[in-house]
């Protein structure tokens, strides 16, 4: 095992500079924040949701594209946002709104990694898996999807501002057969779970989501099941599905206490993996990230 003393000290990052970089990130659009707020309420009227969604033309177009996708068998028949919501349902729509908003934010982050497609596909897979796990627990699916989709957002901070170091971290992890987060800590002194927490605090996400992202590689061993357990297991499921098209770097095994708290049997897991893969292909076909910067 490589030790911290053996890692190149020249790659250490300045934490104060990183904090400034994150504070400089654009805020999420007000329409998106309003939609996220509505999705967390159980008594939101469909018309209220539709009227809010119409304020963002780009999101409205994507909603219509998904409602008319072959997955629903209604190609070309859905022409209004309200009808699209009826087809998709508010829960599925919540998934879509969050994914589309993050897709738009990728451009503002200016990420330049050659593996951005890999990052995006893994993020969608983790978000979808988290949504299915939340449904099994009877929890808010849109919140779980948001946490799963954003779980690795801290990696984009380093990639966008320090692309050479991000590439070296990735190479170091593969060469030394260690997880990406371990390589981050050894080389840069900070890992993406902490940076992801900072980003979510800047974007004013709920505490539940922020904590889940901060703890998604190491949920607390004791206590009841939390969203951190859901994202942790969803991350493992996403790696198991291997939907990115490339080999994964070494990842630590999922914590047994998270599996136990979520009460996952092999039969349940097999069904969840199948459902998550089907939904992944549905979303991935519609939500393509912007092309990478050369």
From TrEMBL:
Protein name, as recorded: HDOD domain-containing protein
Taxonomic superkingdom: Bacteria
Annotated PANTHER family: PTHR33525, RIBONUCLEASE Y
InterPro entries registered for this protein in UniProt: HD/PDEase_dom, HDIG_dom, HDOD, RNase_Y/CdgJ
Residues annotated as domain HDOD: 25-219
One Pfam family matching this protein: HDOD
